[in-house]
Every structure is written in C-alpha cells, then in structure tokens.
Write a sequence for this structure.
C-alpha cells in the first residue's frame, strides 16, 4: 500500500515535474534539456559518494546518453520529514548559479527519492584530500576553491538561504575544474512563510564546522553561520582535516563554545600568506555580527589574485584514477579496518571526520556528556590538536571545570546489522559519447528499471530497513562484510554507523557498543523524532518551543534545555586554584555532584531490579551475569549483563572518586588550618610590632 506520505510526495514531485518540463531549467546547456521522471530512463552505475541519508551514483540518462549523478535518498528514513525533503528538492531545482549544484528533476522510486543532478566527475574536495592530499592543498588551489564556494554562498544568502552544511565534503569538483557547492539537505530559508526570519533556532550541521551560535540553543543564527563554516572549511583545505576532528562531537561543541577560535597561527601555517590567515581570522570570529558577509569577504585581498580553477584546481586530479575507483578504494580501506575488527575507532573517526556523521543523540545523552566533560581536559587536549590549537588555548582559554571525563571507550561489538544484499555488479555498456570507461563503469542491477517497491535484489531483506545499502563490492568482501562488520562502538563519543542508512541508534555516545542496545532501547520509548544524526527524546524537550527538525542528514536538535549554554556562560575562573577559600567551595561542589550521581545510579539500579523482577528474575534481584551468546565465534554479551556491568563499574568508579575527593578535602582542610595558624602568628607579630 502506498503510504499517505509517499502519495503527498508523489503529488508534490509530479507537480514540480510538470512545471519543470514546461518551463525547462536554466543554467548550462545540459540543464536546459528535459529529464524524464521515469526511472526506466536511467541506468545507475557506480556509487560515487554517500552521506548521512543518501547514496550518490554515477548514472546514465538513456534517451540522450547523458552522464548524470543520481542522489538516492532513503524515504523510509525520512518518513516524518517531508518538509525537509521538499525543501531540498525545491531549493535544488530553483537554483541558477554556476557554483551551486542544481537538480534536473526528482521522483520517487520504491522507497527512495531519486534526485537527478549534474555529475561532478571529481567528487568532493573531501574525497580528493583523502585520496591524494592528506595534508591539504597548496594555497593557490585553496584560494580558487574558496572563492568559487564564496560566490555560491553569496548567491544563496542573497536569495535568503542558509546552507548550514558548508564543508569540503559538499564542495564538488568537475573535470574542467568547475566548482559547485552541493547538498541542500539542511539548508534553511530565511524567507519561509512569507516573513523574513531574522534568525533561526534549530541546531543543525556537522559539529566541527558548526558555528558557536548554532550550538547555543536560543541564541539564534543567520547566514553568518555559513561564514564560520566557510572559515573552518578553509582550515580543512589547508590541513587536510577540520580542527577538532579527532574529538567526539560533544567535546567539539564545548571546545567550539569555550575555546578561542581556531586559525592559521602556527609554525606549520607560516607557508600561508598573511592575507589568507587574515581572511580565515575574519570568518572565525565568535561574535557573528562581526563576521563579514559573503559579499564583503569576496572583496578581501586574499581573493584578489585568485587564479581560475581551470588553472590551479584541474591539475590537482590530473594523475589520479577515476572518482569511482578512488571512492571504492576508500570504502575498501574502511571495510578492511572493520574486517580486522581492530580499529573501529579509526573507522568511526574517518566517517566522523568526513562529516558523514550519522550519529543519533538524544538530548539526555548530550546532557550527560556535557556534565561529564572536564573543561581542563578540553583545554589540555585542545592543546594537542595537531599543534595548531595549542598556543591559543594556553594563552587564551580560561574556563575550568571539575568532573573528570568518564571513560568513554567502549568495547567493540560485532553484529549482522550490516546486511549487504547488493546484486551482482554487471559491466555497463556506456556510450562512447560520454566517455565512461566500460571496464570501470558498472551498473547496479535491480535499481536500474525499478519503480514502485524495490526489487528483491536490492530490497531491504533484513527486517531492519536500515540495512539495505547496496554496495558494488567484490563478492569476497560481500560475503565477509556482514559478519565482520563492526557496528559503531561509540568509543570517543561517536555513534557512527558504517553507512548512512544504518543510522538507527540513539547513541549513548560515551558508552560501549555493548551497552548501546540497551540504551537505545531505553531512549526508543521517549524518542520524539529521529533525524539522521540525532534522536530527540521527549523527556527534555520543550515541545511548545520546538521547531520542525531539518533534514535527516544534519545534526538537528530542537531547542532544548541543554546545559551547553549554562556551561558556556559559567563565569571563567581567573586562575588555577591557589587558596583554600577558593578550593573549598569547588571541592564541596564536587562532593555534592558525586553524591548526586551516586543517587542516580542507585535509582537506576533499583528500577533495573524492578524490571528484572517483573521479567521473572528470582526475588526481584539482579540475576547472575549470564554467559554471553556465541555468534560466529564471537561472544556477545547479553544486554542486561552489559548494562549491569556498566552500572557496577560506574558505582565503583564513583566510590573511588568520592574517596579521592574526601581525601583531598581533608588535605585542603588541614592546609587551611595551617594557613590560619600562620596568619594568626603573623597578626600577633604585626600587633607586637605596632605596639613597639
Ligand atoms: N553531483 C555529484 N557528483 C559527484 N559526486 C557527488 C555529487 N553529489 C554528491 N556527490 C558525492 O556524494 C557525497 C554525498 O552526497 P551528499 O552530501 O549530497 O549526501 P548527504 O546524504 O546529503 O550527505 P551529508 O552527510 O553531507 O549530509 C558527497 O560528499 C560527494 O562526494
């Protein structure tokens, strides 16, 4: 049965198509051609990219043999988010700027929405860096890429749009050196509902690129948020990765809010021109009102001598293999890591760093994380941020906190959640006109001519609809991958499903993989909306103030009572504690917090015991830890045992912390007494001296 959601979508899309086919689209000559909305007219080829909610394929439009790209968005994952899909399709189809990717048309195919757009043969800057420029590009290329991106932003801002996901992964390159900004999944229109909105309040983006004002619910943000992300993208292109990219999202949020903005300030950055460094510094000002507009930034001296992309960008990929081979190599590398089962953190990190951060949070988890982060640690680790945050942090950051960061490294767990049901890959028969090498271009059978429900080849054969990603992988890997696939461990506070469509967890980001399920279960009950990277739970959600979530590819948190603002607005301590009167209240605060946490744990344990009792556990007590089940030779602990273990660990950790605190408190007390004695003695000396 066709869901009402799909019916609305079909109506919307066909309406769009009628308009489009009648009027044609503007832009390049290719864009003037009509593209049908019949999936049989398209042949899907190699995968050339994937994001949080979509897989992008090279494709051929059979009637004209045009090479195009098709972004296949998973509708099942967006079922409460029609607005966002509509917005993305609408925005993309209305666009008319050489530096912004537009869509030719879009239509539903089974459970997917296909968005037809120009194929950008060299993929994203992110992919290019990952394949061949791990330390970033040379300044002339950066300048050229940034200038074209800025033109795109200027265009969008002038038309009332905020892109909200500016990053190297969304800057696409063509063979000719042409540069286009893509992915409007999270873009927002400032003119929605006819009224210009001064600023927005939803929390959207990818943490490393996110402007501080976006992270602080209630503060509101506007197109200047894109300028911050643009500055971060500049650093990304200069270093090969975004600042803070090695840190878990919650930490990135706090570091962005509390620390001095990143910049090109270190020895390794001396190779860059002063005008480049100045330009970045202008973008990365915390006060959004002080950031320049895109239009103004375009006039900055850094861009005055920008070379054309054909000259300095084109040569970047002159000797590289085709995009699909590079993308596949990167995927294979990740798969290898996962198969080894050794370095899930590295896999997660790689996904996270590229901004394909399909993690889910619920606000409760975020609150917990925020509460458990240690500002000191943030500062210390910030210093290690590949050398280029260090000095700034030492010099400028001042906030100090109290609770030490809990151990967030979790155990890896292996699961079959990654179900590769791809059809065998067939060699394609591309037309020589569009020059797709026969050996390299492959079609994904089953997606080529399917409309309506997905064919079995590619259907979501596992009950979990999120397991239906199609991989064009060697048979050996397809056989191996499902069993060896390592689910996100959330170590390092990340919940990074290997693939976008596996995004099903409400990630207790500091917990172990083993605990994830239980916590996911826990949060499931109160989940209000699951949007790609985030789940929003009802418990801490002020529904009255809630705004609709943005597209699922984004980090999207409704305005909430998150403590971030609280934390950020905490008055900065002027210096490290130096006197007992300074230390005492802090220690008391610590002890108070610790005992509160202990109470919480005890409460949790009690409710757990109650649950176990109703489940039939003897005498309502926690049962003995059962032996884990054995799946493919890997012992998987039952959820309840892992949950117990975590709670017990937490208790003992808290107890030992409490003990330490008490000892410290005693020590401080005795220091305090001593100091008082000394003071008394000094006073009596002073008095005696005065009398004399
Ligand atoms: N037109 C295109 N031509 C070639 N490659 C593309 C094209 N569009 C997207 N890609 C590749 O696919 C990747 C994912 O696309 P996109 O960013 O649109 O997906 P998404 O699910 O919206 O991702 P995100 O996680 O960034 O929100 C891009 O990073 C890029 O490498």
């Amino acid at each position: 049965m066709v869901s009402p959601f799909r019916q609305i979508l079909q109506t919307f899309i066909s309406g769009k198509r009628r308009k489009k086919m009648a009027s044609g689209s503007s832009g390049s000559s290719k864009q003037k051609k009509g593209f049908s909305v019949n999936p049989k007219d398209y042949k899907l080829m190699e995968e050339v990219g994937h994001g949080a909610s979509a897989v992008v394929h090279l494709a051929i439009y059979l009637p004209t043999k045009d090479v195009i790209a098709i972004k296949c968005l998973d509708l099942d994952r967006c079922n409460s988010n029609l607005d966002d899909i509509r917005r993305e399709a609408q925005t993309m189809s209305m666009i008319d700027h050489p530096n912004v990717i537009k869509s030719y048309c879009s239509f539903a195919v089974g459970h997917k929405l296909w968005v037809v757009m120009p194929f950008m043969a060299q993929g994203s800057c992110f992919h290019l860096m990952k394949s061949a420029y791990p330390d970033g590009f040379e300044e002339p290329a950066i300048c050229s890429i940034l200038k074209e991106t800025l033109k795109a932003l200027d265009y969008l801002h002038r038309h009332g749009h905020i892109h909200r996901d500016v990053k190297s992964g969304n800057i696409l390159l063509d063979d000719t050196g042409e540069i286009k900004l893509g992915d409007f999944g999270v873009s927002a229109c400032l003119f929605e509902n006819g009224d210009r909105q001064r600023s927005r309040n939803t929390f959207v983006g990818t943490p490393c690129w996110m402007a501080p004002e976006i992270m602080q619910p209630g503060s509101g943000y506007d197109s200047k948020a894109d300028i911050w992300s643009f500055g971060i993208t500049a650093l990304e292109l200069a270093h090969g990765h975004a600042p803070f990219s090695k840190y878990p999202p919650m930490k990135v949020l706090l570091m962005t809010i509390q620390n001095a903005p990143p910049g090109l300030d270190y020895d390794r950055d001396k190779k860059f021109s002063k005008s480049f460094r100045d330009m970045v510094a202008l973008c990365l000002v915390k006060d959004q009102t002080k950031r320049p507009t895109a239009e103004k930034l375009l006039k900055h001296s850094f861009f005055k001598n920008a070379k054309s992309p054909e000259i300095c960008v084109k040569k970047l990929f002159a000797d590289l293999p085709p995009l699909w081979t590079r993308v596949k190599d990167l995927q294979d590398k990740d798969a290898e890591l996962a198969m080894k089962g050794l370095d899930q953190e590295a896999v997660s990190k790689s996904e996270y760093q590229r901004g394909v951060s399909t993690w889910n949070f619920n606000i409760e988890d975020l609150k917990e994380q925020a509460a458990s982060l240690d500002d000191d640690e943030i500062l210390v680790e910030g210093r290690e941020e590949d050398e280029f945050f260090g000095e700034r942090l030492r010099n400028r950051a001042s906030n100090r906190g109290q609770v030490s960061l809990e151990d967030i490294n979790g155990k890896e767990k292996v699961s079959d959640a990654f179900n590769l049901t791809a059809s065998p890959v067939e060699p394609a028969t591309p037309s020589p006109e569009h020059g797709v090498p026969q050996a390299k271009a492959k079609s994904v059978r089953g997606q080529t001519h399917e409309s309506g429900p997905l064919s079995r080849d590619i259907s979501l054969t596992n009950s979990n609809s999120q397991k239906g990603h199609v991989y064009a992988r060697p048979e050996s890997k397809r056989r191996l991958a499902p069993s060896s696939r390592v689910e996100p461990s959330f170590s390092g506070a990340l919940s990074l499903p290997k693939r976008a469509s596996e995004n099903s967890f409400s990630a207790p980001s500091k917990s172990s993989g083993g605990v994830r399920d239980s916590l996911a279960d826990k949060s499931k009950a109160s989940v209000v909306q699951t949007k790609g990277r985030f789940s929003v739970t009802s418990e801490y959600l002020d529904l009255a103030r809630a705004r609709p979530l943005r597209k699922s590819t984004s980090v999207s948190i409704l305005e909430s009572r998150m403590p971030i603002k609280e934390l950020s607005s905490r008055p900065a301590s002027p210096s490290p504690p130096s006197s007992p009167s300074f230390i005492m209240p802090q220690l008391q605060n610590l002890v108070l917090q610790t005992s509160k946490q202990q109470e919480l744990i005890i409460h949790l344990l009690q409710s757990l015991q109650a649950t176990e009792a109703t489940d039939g556990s003897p005498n309502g007590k926690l049962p003995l830890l059962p032996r884990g089940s054995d799946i493919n030779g890997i012992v998987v602990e039952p959820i309840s045992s892992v949950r117990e273990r975590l709670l017990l660990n937490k208790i003992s950790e808290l107890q030992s912390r409490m003990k330490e605190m008490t000892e410290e408190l005693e020590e401080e007390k005795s220091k305090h007494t001593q100091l008082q004695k000394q003071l008394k003695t000094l006073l009596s000396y002073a008095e005696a001296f005065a009398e004399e």
Observations:
- The radius of gyration is 27 Å.
- The pocket of adenosine-5'-triphosphate is lined by residues 48-54, 56, 69, 71, 101, 117-120, 123-124, 127, 165, 169-170, 172, 182-183, 185, 355-356, 500, 553 (CB under 6 Å).
- The longest strand covers residues 42-50.
- The mean pLDDT is 62.
